[in-house]
Amino acid sequence: MKIKMQVVSDILKWIEENLDNNIRIEDVVNKSGYSRRGIQLIFKEYTGLPLGSYIRHRKLCRSAMLLRLTNQSIFDISDQLGFDSQTSFSREFKKYFDYTPNKYRANPSWDLKKFRARIILDEGNQLVPSFRYLNDDAIFGCNNNSYKISYQKSFLQPSTNDNDIRLDIVKKNIKTSKKTLLILSKFKPSKLDHHILDIDTIIAFEDSIIKSNEGHKRYDIDSGLYVMFPYKGNWSELSSFSRKIYTEIFPAYGLSRRPGYDIEIFYYNDSLLLDDYSDITVECDYYIPISK
Question: Which residue intervals define the domain HTH araC/xylS-type in the entry (predicted)?
Fold first, then answer.
């Protein structure tokens, strides 16, 4: 990688790590070692964007994530990201997203069309979505083949424990059966902790999808358009995979998430029998409901 390109790449990473610290162009200048004009020219050469605009857009997009995935107040979000006031933040937010912060938070669908994804220079393989139409279906709680659990996690700052909870679920259910496993998840900001998501998850084997089963809890999978991404890799990277879909791929393709379950279909492989999590290879298809 060229020296100038590496400088810009380092700056882009630093901006992401410091969005909550009220960063200014002067901070980037000091970080880079270049003059103000010099770093602005280099930044635009490699990104196509003015440095100040990029920082402002990334802050607004960070605020959009906080609005959708936390219960932080609008005042706290505007203050955290260094806006002059809640009024100026709300004005800039509406100008950029065409929604007030309150309406953006309350919208049943999550519109990511104007979301400015972080720029990563010289990135390897890009995720390419495929689009699938799923018919109405349902999972029933029969013969212990499906059940519901609830847990909490942070989407913005995931922990190792978050991964362990989910992997334990997959390992426990797939280890003995060796069947394809479905995980259906809905999420919403927790009312008890501003920074945490409440996750409601349905666990089921593929053969739990049946047409009727009287007397058991029914979980509906709505028909409609879904975007699908295949994943094969280390378990520890699966959380960053889903975050990348929402924060980078959705904006790049102008997608909007509609209400419904995120659906993960996990396929059995022998590595799921191993005790060491670092040796486990995960194979799954990830479906997210989207608007046309």
Answer: 9-107
